[in-house]
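Running co-folding for magnesium ion.
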Amino acid sequence: MKTDMDRKLRDFLGAKTAKTFADVLEIETVGELLRHYPRRYLKKGELTPFDELEVGDQATVSGRVKKVTARALDTKVEIRPDDVYKFRKKRTITKVVVTDGRNDLELAFFNQPWLLTKLTPGTAALFWGEVTMFRDIMQLKGPGTEILDEEDLTEAEIERRARPFRPLYPATAKLPTATIERSIKIVLDSLDDRVDDPVPDVVLRNEKLLGLRDALQKVHLPDTEKDINDAQQRFRFEEALVMQTILAQRRAVMDAQSAVPRPRQAGALLDDFDQRLPFELTEGQAEVGEEIFADLARPHPMHRLLQGEVGSGKTVVALRAMLSVVDNGGQAALLAPTEVLAVQHHKTLTKMLGDLAEQGMLGGAERATKIGLLTGSLNAASRRTAMLDAASGAAGIVVGTHALLEDKVQFADLGLVVVDEQHRFGVEQRAALSAKSGENTPHVLVMTATPIPRTVAMTVFGDLAVSTLTQLPAGRSPIQSSVVPAKERPDWLQRAWARVREEVGKGHQAYVVCPRIGDDVKNAKDEEGELLETDEGGKKQARPPISVMQVSEALAEILYDLRVEILHGRLPAEEKDAVMSRFAAGDIDVLIATTVIEVGVDVPNASTMVIMDADRFGISQLHQLRGRVGRGKVPGLCLLVTDLWAGSRSYGRLDAVASTTDGFELSRIDLETRREGDVLGVAQSGRRSSLKLLSVLRDEDIILAARHEATRIVGVDPALSEFPELLAIVRSALQSETTEYLEKT
Ligand code: ADP
Ligand code: MG
């Protein structure tokens, strides 16, 4: 079905402009251009607040010039306004300071000395370019400019600039916002009064939304604040409706899937296990257990997310679910994000089960099973055994990394897949494991210590049921955290090492975590401490993050009499294993490690963690790391070391981590400081997201309403045959990255 929206831009704009849109923004059709919404609006006569800018943004701002200077780059001679023409062929830099009335922004122009006479103090202008940081000052690098009160304009220009609100588009130097604005005006003017709307009429009426034609006009050329709000509301709803329609369709498919019911069996392995548990289950653990058993008993696959604070005891819950499946003659797979963690899980489960995991062995219990381990670095023989055990069904539980996902790995009867620390696992990988059990889909339990707000879970995971463990097991010690500003207070860093020594003196152990390994020759020679600043082009290069190797060298002197060892991802598997075992056995005092220890590692005697260059880690990651201490009766201590100055924004993040151990609170802070794409986990892709205006964090009401409408639509017309425009936009969303995961799970 062809509509006006599918027409090529080159039918409306010059061939050159159309090509620039295609090259720079991958925009080729009328519809794509019209859905390139303004990022902000400039109210006539107002300046854009600079404090909303973020480094890396392609931003358009309006500001008033405060100061302008120019100098020759070679001779460093200051250029005077009268001399500008003399320098027109020289390498020059013109620096302009503009203000929004409160904050300043620095602009750097190369080889444009004449700007000295154009951008005189008091001039108001639009500037656009990439936001960068240079010596702690925000800059726009080589920006484009448009002087606002310029004379000699065409009538169309005068009209354009006289509008009460000017749209500011996500733009680049090659495609300034003014060009986008002009092009959109041309395209809009040529559009029919009525265009096909993907949002069905009945939904527009129910939700009191603007129709598409009206909304496009108002989003691009608003006359009032209300126009902007109404139009954005409509497009947000549309985005939510598309996602929720996809999810509703998937729910319909899932409801049709079948799974082998695995009801709880009395007097079997699970009961044996429960009887020998060395502790009482917490109330939460018991409750979640019941929820899971109920799910497992149904003839449809379970899709459950188990979220619980670090240390809340998710492993036991998962193990009980796995045993229940084994009791039904099925198998369970536990997928871990790293090798270290897989090995650790295998050990923990084996220990917890004791002789219940010694099937066929001397001394094994009567009703026993076997736990297999399958990771990438097993030798050929162990690998063969593990694969045989999985394929024959001898192993009731198989623990592994992504190696479990390989095609060669077969299961006799895979009934349950447990995914630990979901944020490290792609949806495709989960799907690959699901594919291993023939026409019956396995039950799936996803565990995470990073709590996910309800709307995000609803959007990203479609319809996972969510269980939450809120209590920590009794007897857990509190963790005390502090930020150590190493540059401002070098003495505090000294004190930190003294604390480590004291803790070891009391018989405890410590982790020192670094953001980088640093075992390659080049980086091993990194200068320490100082920022490497280069003036050219206004680039600031921060020094590389501190490495395990550097810290190891330094601590060899400071903690010379302690048993200090290192652990990182590039050590051979046996060595990693050996180091972890020695640490667990108390034969190592201080372990200098990368984030390989981030999740799951459980050594209750470890009391202290020093995180170096803590600002290089995300909030959730710091919280996760910190969860490695305070796991036993020993109170935990976490020191967040940073070179940042107190008062900077990133320092504030560290302060937040230090001031609360509430993972839900921290997750909220973390998500709020990220961009939408990151929330959905697709930031790195660079592909276009189908969410442009909708915020899965803020727009809960819209998402709920859209879900309601989508469920109704799909309920009566699952194939959307009555809603061709909606179907078309759903299809195109499915091709974009944001929703790619939705197709698979
Ligand atoms: P996480 O939820 O972070 O994965 P774990 O499952 O690793 O936490 O549990 C952390 C520690 O708490 C483990 O040593 C585990 O044996 C212990 N644990 C779990 N449940 C309880 C309980 N109900 N009472 C006491 N200790 C428990
Ligand atoms: Mg865990």
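Result summary
Residues 279-282, 285, 308, 310-316, 449, 473, 602, 631 surround adenosine-5'-diphosphate (ligand 1) (CB under 6 Å).
The chain has four domains: 45-162, 237-256+690-743, 269-469, 479-660.
Job closed.
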